[in-house]
Amino acid sequence: MFKGKPTKIIITGNAKEEFDDLNKVVGDEIKEGITKSDYQTLLNSIKQKMDLLRDNPEYGILIPKDKIPKDYIRDYDVIISGR
User: Rounded distance, CA 5 to CA 2, Å?
Assistant: First the structure.
């Protein structure tokens, strides 16, 4: 919840495919008993940033809505919400 509103992280397009692949690789490593790898470090870092964004969607550099290219909004299902 952020300011009383529920938040969720949506990963789309190539990012979703790569994130799913990374999850699979890490899952396979864990099954094999591997407890530390670059893949696991990367996945943990991504999940940490997702948690930060879920807790505070204003985290990071805010890009003015009029600066977001229309094709980016279309191709990556970017949701523009009022603040």
Answer: 5
Whether this model's pTM surpasses 0.85: no
User: Which residue has tokens 């964004």?
Assistant: 53
- Residue 64's DSSP bridge partners are none
Q: Where are the domains of the chain?
A: 13-75
pLDDT in tens, the chain (83 residues): 788 888 888 888 889 999 999 999 999 999 999 999 999 999 999 999 999 999 988 888 888 888 988 888 888 777 776 64
According to DSSP, residue 5 is labeled: B
- Measured in residues, the chain has a length of 83
Strand partners for 2: 5
56-to-9, 13, 70 alpha-carbon distances in Å:
11, 23, 25
